[in-house]
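JOB MANIFEST
job_type = single_chain_structure
chain_count = 1
residues = 499
[input]
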Amino acid sequence: MSYSQSDLYSLSNEVYPVATRLIARTPSTIIMLSSPNVALLSQPLKPLKILTIDGGGLQAISTLVILDTLLDTIARVNKVPERRPRPCDVFVSHPTQHPLYTDVDDKQDLIAGIGAGGWLALLLGRFHLSITACLSEWYNITHCIAPRSKGEALRMRIFQHCYFDTDRLMEQIDQLTSIYGTGEKLLYDSANGPRCRHVFVAALGTTGQHGKLGYNLFRTYRCPENAHVLEGPEKPETYKISRAFAVTGAAKYFTPPFNEHMANSGKMMFIDTKYPKPHNITELALDEMWGLYGKTVPISVVVNIGPGIPNQSDMNQIARRFSWGLSSSKPNKETVTEKPKSLDKTHVGLKKGPLASQHANALPTNDDQQPKVQFLSHSQTGNPSAEPLGEQHIRSLERTDRTTTYGSVADRGITVKLRRMESDIEKDIKAKLKYVYPNETPPYYRLALEEAPRGTVQNDSSAPGAVHDAALEYVGTVQTNITMEDVARRIPVEILVEG
């Protein structure tokens, strides 16, 4: 059974302190707690690895360049450069026969995303694509959903207040499921090989007459019936991959709202009305794992990758095209970017590095142009003046009896959380991990540009050269290389050679 955020909050304070004390480390068992509303899985046999992917408009190229460089580093550090893995080879699941619950794995690494990051999470984790294939499909998808004439673009802006066609997106994804043989269903039941089977995408929805905000998750895996996790769709066993793309991608300026029937809340409308504010997809991923396994679950590494915050100049330009504008956000000082270098039309757009020699015709031409386990109810918006969580707040957390999620500041609701910037989110995640794991804190790594290049937020496929140059500059820095080396050392070599 899945729960709305208000349901989870009402149960959390009483149940979870007990739950975390009762978790057994015996493999192949489910611990049924005294409360009938709680079921926690047994601890995995190996520490979990978590990969989360940010959205940030219609951007993916820099995310894929960064992830490709990381995978190359993992192969090199593990001394198997000829076996450079796909993401689904690194963030894997090991199926096992479970005496009480047949869909439990010994180990379920997780890939999660939201918005365009959710699209990448599904392409990499559900379709099991390589970075090169994912890049190619990204170009195909963005080309497919874009207006096919100036007249169509004008009609969509005037009547639907958006740029892109959701119906064409779903048609394109349905075709991909046929091409790659995944089947149309989001749920992944195949037990062939240790490939990634655990992916979710998040979407920001509204429910009730007053449009209360809340996150919902759309998963490729089953959860125990009574798990305290965020609510999913009404019929997860028949839910389609294409609808998952549509619901996580629904965002102001980009697509129309998308309606779904949820397990408990009924019909909900999904649209990221807070764009371009960042979403803490990593917090959702951690809460999902803690909701399934409890707070004692071992985690070896948490990696967040994204395209950087949307360029403010781009956002101002997009907002001027629509009647509602940029909702009181103040323009920041623009980041000066160099004029993008020209690209040969037959070039993949990755002029050097691991992808340079692959898929030389991927670019279109210019002519083709948790479980909020402890989550405030939607009506509890929290304290608007709450500060970002940092090292100085660790001790105050220990005195907190009531929290919004594991290790979060008391009374900070979703409205307040959506006001945070990327730097605040990073501080929050690190402090939360330190609070939950005070003795051995799992490392958290964020790999992303500071800001997306100018002219790329609406659709980075229209300016691949600028994005690629910025991504290469980022991955070429000393600090980024040090970070990637640290991550690679935490990915054991056996993961690369299995299956």
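[summary]
The two ends are 33 Å apart (CA to CA).
The chain has a mean pLDDT of 75.
exit_status = 0
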